[in-house]
Amino acid sequence: MSSIWEYANPRRFMATSGALLPWISAIAAVCLVVGLVWGFFFTPNDFRQGSTVKIIYVHVPSAIMAVNAWLMMLVASLIWVVRRHHVSALAAKAAAPVGMVFTLIALFTGAVWGQPMWGTWWEWDPRLTSFLILFLFYLGFMALWEAIENPDQAADLTAVLCLVGSVFAVISRYALVFWNQGLHQGATLSLDAEQNIADVFWYPLITVMAGFGFLFLALVLYRTRTEIRARRVKALIAQERMA
Amino acid sequence: MIGLLKRDLSLAIRAGGGFGLSLAFFLIFTALVPFGVGPETGRLSEMAAGLLWLGALLACLLSLDRIFQLDWEDGTLDLLATSPLPLESVAALKALAHWLTTGLPLVAAAPVLGILLNLPGAAYPWLIASLFVGTPALSIIGAFGAALTVGIKRGGLLLSLLVLPLYVPTLLFGALAATRGAQGLDATTPLVLTAGITLGAAALLPFAAAAALRVNLR
Amino acid sequence: MTLRVSDLACARGPAQVLASVSFSVEAGEALILRGPNGAGKTTLLRTLAGLTPPITGTIMHEEDAIAYAGHADGLKAQLSVTENLTFWASIFGTDDITPALTAFDLHPLADRRAGELSAGQKRRLSLARLLVTGRPIWCLDEPTVSLDAENTARFATAVEAHLAQGGSALIATHIDLGLSNARTLDITPFIAKGLPASDPFADDPFVGALS
């Protein structure tokens, strides 16, 4: 138990993640149920936005997780490139569809929220547009993984794509602000902002955010475990064939 | 190093090299636009700068898979990888050759096609300048995408899927420079930013492309 | 110019194909690699050429010493014979392509486009490329494919001349080239049968993931 890298061993990872997974899933479920029920039914309506504001409890956490999932893929890809830990590469692969779905949820709830607020389902606002582009990055990452047979090669190439894509995603983000100032309200949750949301909304929101975080963790662990099993099957078949 | 550039240029120009295909695509794209959005000159002239940028981008995209694919298939890439020329230089030179045979002709053709779309007179210098400084970025980013997908059979569609999101900032700044020019506004800032993306891409992406090529050659 | 390989393990894709390969090739010497199809001759040569990274082991030679020629000819159909050779000469920083043309009797074909050559003629052109690289260690993968007897002899002469100049060659081939200073290395004993017995999970960490 000397170093965190011991979990890079697939066997070690399977044992530990198997033990943790039920707990993480349970925490995710509790946080989500408590936070969402609290947010939807026990918070007042916003004086300007009415009850539509409640979509914030899905929209904001999924948007945050959409970005964080990409960051996690970036870190996992870097770990793979530097230390060649297979589990890391598989975790990046496993996180991509999860991140993509979070991006879709953020886009969809954004549209549903935007319709009554701005009178339009879609607006080429920098935030919305950058999430659309993030969605395309997820698609490209997954498509590249699917297209390459050799898993190590796929891991290497997707890692390079993830690195370059991250740089371009950041450039795109600022380019979009330059391009169109946008309708989207400022960050709801910055710590130093004067106009922050009231505590009454804030507590259920962080509960849901924690729930989404644990949900992401649980899904990624679950999918990484599946990938490891798939790799094991492949390795066993190869072994069988060579013997 | 010059040898590789010279070879790529003569290969592109000779029969079967595909030189001019992108140019023809650009022409057809521009000719099809009015059928899609209607022939009113006022509307066309408003959209012309952006549409020409988009057309140039798509025309560029069309020929990207040729950057490394042919050399990969006939084994030349293996030999280049074992040559004294670093793969980083190979990637950069091939992107340059792609720009000279694809991007530069598109820049030259854009003003002519601008007439078809009724591009306002004030926009011409800005359009040409923005395409001139922006299309190299398209070739370099494209070379990176081509390096990623070189080992994949029929990877052309995947290449587009990977490269198009990476094209966003270049398209955005380049088209913005041209559009602002068309409106008679000063477009120096987006033009400089377009050039910045080209320079940044030229400085960094050959390394990423070479890394991808090494992985694919294993 | 010595090539020294010790305890080399090579992989083709995700699978290890060769283990603990050790040999050395001295200047003026040719090493003929033999082994059944799929044994890993190509993998070994690609590893030596630096295209595929080895799993373990060391490959020692001077920098920029290896010229590799694989199954593919690496020729451009639209370029003439001379242009193809001149291109490689410029890449490798040499300038005289005449010896290469002479050695493989390519003068009569010099202005023909590579696309118009027969398979054997293409092969000669791709072997002539070795001479313009100016590199001492040749790693050749089935170099005599589609060559007739006369041109195989011509190739053998070129290899002899290369060895006489202090070069060396590793040649994966099934035919007897009749080289004077050649050793044969059968790589069959090095084939990695399944996984190494000592550590059943060394090859792929995922085999043991669930046990």
User: Span between N and C termini of chain B?
Assistant: 24 Å
Strand runs of chain A, count:
0
Largest sheet of chain B: none
Largest sheet of chain A: none
| Strand content range of chain B | under 5%
Please state the oligomeric state of the protein chains shown: heterotrimer
Shape of chain B: elongated
Helix amount of chain B: over 70%
Mind telling me the C-alpha Rg of chain A? Answer: 20 Å
Low-confidence stretches of chain A: 190-194
Shape, per Cα inertia axes of chain A: globular
* Tally of helical runs of chain A: 6
> For the CA atoms, what is the radius of gyration of chain B?
18 Å
Tell me the series of helices and strands of chain A, N- to C-terminal. Answer: HHHHHH
Task: Provide the residue-averaged pLDDT of chain B.
Answer: 90
Helix content of chain A: over 70%
Alpha-carbon distance between the termini of chain A? 35 Å
Runs of chain B with pLDDT <50, length 5+?
A: none
Q: Topology as H/E string of chain B?
A: HHHHHHHHH
Number of strand elements of chain B: 0
Concise overview:
By secondary structure, chain B is mainly α. Chain B contains nine helices and no strands.
Written overview of the protein:
The complex is a heterotrimer of chains A (243), B (218) and C (211). With 243 residues, chain A is mainly alpha-helical. Chain A has helices at residues 10-41, 56-83, 86-118, 126-147, 151-179, 199-242. Chain A starts with 9 loop residues before the first helix and ends with a helix. Helix content of chain B is 82%, strand content 0%. In chain B, α2 (21-37) crosses α6. By secondary structure, chain C is of the alpha/beta class. Chain C has helices spanning 41-49, 81-92, 98-103, 119-133, 149-164, and strands at 3-12, 15-25, 30-34, 56-60, 66-69, 137-141, 168-172, 182-186. In chain C, the strands form two sheets. Chain C has a five-stranded parallel β-sheet, sandwiched between helices. In chain C, α5 links the parallel β6 and β7 (168-172). In chain C, α2 packs parallel to α4 (119-133). The longest helix of chain C has 16 residues, at 149-164. Chains in contact: A-B, A-C, B-C. The interface between B and C is medium-sized, with 25 and 32 residues.
